[in-house]
Design a protein that fits this description.
With 430 residues, this protein is an all-alpha fold. Helix content is 64%, strand content 2%. The protein has a two-stranded antiparallel sheet with strand order 1-2. A hairpin with a 4-residue loop joins strand 1 and strand 2. Helix 8 crosses helix 17.
């Protein structure tokens, strides 16, 4: 259900001084890609705010999922928009890299800064916050749930960092081999799932973090060069993707839901499966088919407002949910009603309004950290850029696994992220 609000979701000019890699060209922004990123973020937030089923018994906070209601899983084939987010990121990265005057290491360093910089205020709040709240008597278990889930949301940044660092090589492969590249990645996903489900070796399934998400990211390159906009290609991708997903769910070991559900033996998201890749291909084809209609929508003011705030919304919409949950569910003792019931429908506008009210000051406060400082950055080499990416990626992955729960892990993770950022800091020109 994620530069999000992120580098992946950002394609704004970056301030780098570099020897030209290629002559930069002034190209207009593609409103379709911008709209996909904003709509994708809106759906992520809407879903995260809508689906929790929460109850508190005085000791522990229990979390359920409204999409676990029988038959509702089919909604996730459209509401699980992470494939579209990676697709839009691939298109944006291809366009940005192609028109940049910076060489590859400097382009990557600038992308890395834009991805990691907004994490610093999140960490500055969440590393001390659990300790402070515990001293004020806030129940430990609900607080730990919130601290861990805030970090788990960062999985997308860790995976997207892999996609960004692969862009120079992936574009080179794309130019040489075309459709054979996503086909090879899809074949890797097939082999991974066969080994995972036939041998019961669950850990191997995490290879699909690379195969599935990079395959969808690679599709964005075809859109950037115009090949995916041909109706015949879009129809084939949409019908073939959704059709393959239906067959995989009907006859394979895959659940129907594209979102992980509590108690489910298999998730199509963690790790991603071949069924997720098939749904992603179907979503991309459908989105491109709708492009002529989407670009005619009067979304200019919406995109202008949302673009500079998209990373902030992604990083802080879950803390807004925890604020409202703490007040309504834990403090007042009002559990969320059964999904789909009359009380659920009647209370949903109030619930959503409270969440928007909590989100507004967070957006106002932290949107200023969307863009890293425009400093006179010095020369960035491959070694330094790769080392910086390793530090940032390791820190983000640590936060994804352990969250911001009290302990030394979050502190060390943020030190790694900060170290990676410092490695891209300005250097004295000799």
């Amino acid at each position: 259900m994620i530069e999000a609000p992120l580098t992946v979701l950002l394609d704004r000019p970056v301030a780098v001084a570099a020897e030209p890699r290629a002559q930069a060209t002034a190209a207009p922004r593609d409103p379709f890609i911008d709209l996909l990123r904003v709509l994708g973020m809106a759906l992520i937030v809407f879903q995260h705010w809508t689906i929790p089923v929460l109850s508190y018994d005085g000791v522990g906070l229990t979390t359920g999922n409204a999409l676990g209601t029988p038959g509702v899983w089919v909604v996730t084939w459209l509401s699980q928009v992470m494939p579209l987010v990676f697709f839009a990121g691939g298109a944006a990265n291809a366009i940005s890299f192609g028109r940049s005057a910076a060489d590859a290491p400097r382009w990557l360093a600038a992308r890395l800064r834009r991805l990691a910089w907004p994490l610093l205020p999140l960490a500055a709040v969440w590393i001390p916050l659990p300790h402070v709240l515990l001293t004020f008597g806030v129940p430990e278990q609900p607080l730990e749930v919130g601290a861990r889930l805030t970090g788990q949301l960062l999985w997308f940044l860790a995976v997207y960092l892999i996609a960004v660092m692969a862009v120079p090589y992936a574009l080179r492969l794309h130019e040489r081999y075309g459709w054979r590249v996503p086909a090879a990645l899809a074949a890797g996903a097939v082999v991974t799932d066969v080994v995972r489900f036939s041998a019961g070796f669950e850990a191997v399934g995490y290879l699909n973090v690379v195969f599935v998400w990079l395959a969808v990211h690679q599709l964005g390159f075809f859109y950037a060069e115009g090949r995916l906009r041909r109706p015949r290609c879009s129809w084939a991708l949409s019908l073939g993707g959704f059709g393959a997903a239906a067959l995989l769910v009907a006859y394979g070991p895959y659940p129907g839901s594209m979102i992980g559900l509590p108690g489910a033996e298999v998730s199509n998201m963690a790790p991603p499966t071949l069924a997720m890749l098939a749904v992603g291909a179907g979503q991309v084809g459908l989105a491109v088919l709708l492009r002529p209609w989407l670009v005619r929508l009067p979304t200019g003011r919406l995109l202008a407002w949302a673009g500079p705030r998209i990373m902030t919304v992604y990083l802080w919409h879950m803390p807004a949910l925890f604020v409202v949950t703490g007040l309504v569910v834990v403090l007042v003792g009002i559990d969320t009603p059964a999904p789909g019931s009359a009380f659920w429908w009647a209370g949903w506008p109030i619930w959503f309004g409270l969440l928007c009210l909590a989100m507004w000051p967070l957006t106002k406060m932290f949107a200023r950290f969307e863009t890293p400082p425009a400093l006179p950055y010095g020369t960035a080499g491959w070694g330094g850029t790769l080392a910086a990416a390793t530090l940032v990626g390791g820190g983000v992955l640590t936060l994804t696994v352990g969250g911001f729960a009290p302990g030394g892990g979050p502190f060390l993770a943020v030190l790694a992220v900060l170290g990676g950022l410092l490695m891209t800091a300005p250097r004295t020109q000799v």
